[in-house]
TrEMBL record:
GO terms for biological process: DNA-templated transcription. Promotes RNA polymerase assembly. Latches the N- and C-terminal regions of the beta' subunit thereby facilitating its interaction with the beta and alpha subunits. The keyword Mitochondrion does not apply. The gene is rpoZ. This is DNA-directed RNA polymerase subunit omega. It comes from Limosilactobacillus ingluviei. It catalyses: RNA(n) + a ribonucleoside 5'-triphosphate = RNA(n+1) + diphosphate. The RNAP catalytic core consists of 2 alpha, 1 beta, 1 beta' and 1 omega subunit. When a sigma factor is associated with the core the holoenzyme is formed, which can initiate transcription. InterPro entries: DNA-dir_RNA_pol_omega, Pol_omega/Rpo6/RPB6, RPB6/omega-like_sf. GO terms for cellular component: DNA-directed RNA polymerase complex. The lineage of its organism: Bacteria, Bacillati, Bacillota, Bacilli, Lactobacillales. It is an enzyme of class 2 (transferase). Belongs to the RNA polymerase subunit omega family. Its EC number is 2.7.7.6.
Length: 91
């Protein structure tokens, strides 16, 4: 169960629980990839491309887990759903 941030506060940023779950899941995967790549870059002699990674958006997190961190970013209004996503075929 989520205690912080509260679901009521999160739903002020996202219009449905389903959208909240999908957004938090996607952002949590981005956070995991960023943290893994950053750790690999610091501990490896080989270059690691961090250019495609999405960095952390808050200076301080209450949660150490990626899902909790994603929810904190959503509550802060730093992550939202793109209502008009562009596809690579559109130009």
């Amino acid at each position: 169960m989520i205690l912080y941030p509260s679901v009521d506060e999160l739903l002020k940023q996202v219009d449905s629980r389903y959208s909240l779950i999908m957004l938090a899941s996607k952002r949590a995967h981005e956070i995991d990839k960023y943290r893994t790549d950053k750790d690999r870059a610091q501990n490896s002699d080989k270059p690691v491309d961090l250019e495609q990674d999405k960095p952390l958006l808050l200076n301080r997190y209450n949660s150490t887990k990626s899902v909790g961190m994603a929810l904190e970013e959503i509550e802060a209004g730093l992550v939202s759903i793109d209502e008009n996503p562009s596809t690579p075929d559109e130009d």
